[in-house]
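Human: I would love a firmer grasp of how sequence relates to backbone shape in proteins. Take your time, and here it is.
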Amino acid sequence: MKLLRTIRLDGSDSFVFETPAEPGEWAVSGAFAFAHTDVMNLRGKARTAFRAGFLGLDSLGRSTLAQIVEANEQDRCLVVELLAVQLVQRFGAPDLATARIAAEEEIGFAASLCDHPPGVLVAVTRSHESGAIRETFRTLRPREGAGHSRAFEFLEVVGEDDVPGEHLDLAKLGKEALH
């Protein structure tokens, strides 16, 4: 099994996001965090978080990139519980049982993005179209022989997976379950 963790290749996340995720946090897309937001009126760092930020689950900060990492069932359970607690404490879920259902869906979606070898980076681009949030994901591999030391050594795009409103529909289902 593979999941996502935040990664920071340079200091830019500290400048572009209000709250940057710390490197190594478990991560999800986090589109659900914008469910009650008028995204058309977002400006500055909030707009950047909407447009290009993964959600770090410890800090609820944003990360431009997430890295595919090996995980086990214990890790997955921990991540689901971590997100469920955050959904109750920070996003208004009525109880942990309801939040766990939404967290399972979100973690399942994050795992579906990990159909590449460990170490591959994933970037997200979000837009608002016809009343729905649309997400596009790109995977980036280091150039042959390069490690993850510098952002500009990465820009070999492996593929672009377009995930339209279906993901948001899951988030909406979670949002409806939360309220």
Confidence is low (pLDDT under 50) at residues 151-179. Residues 73-91 form the longest helix (19 residues). The CA atoms of residues 82 and 170 lie 19 Å apart. DSSP finds five helices and eight strands in the chain.
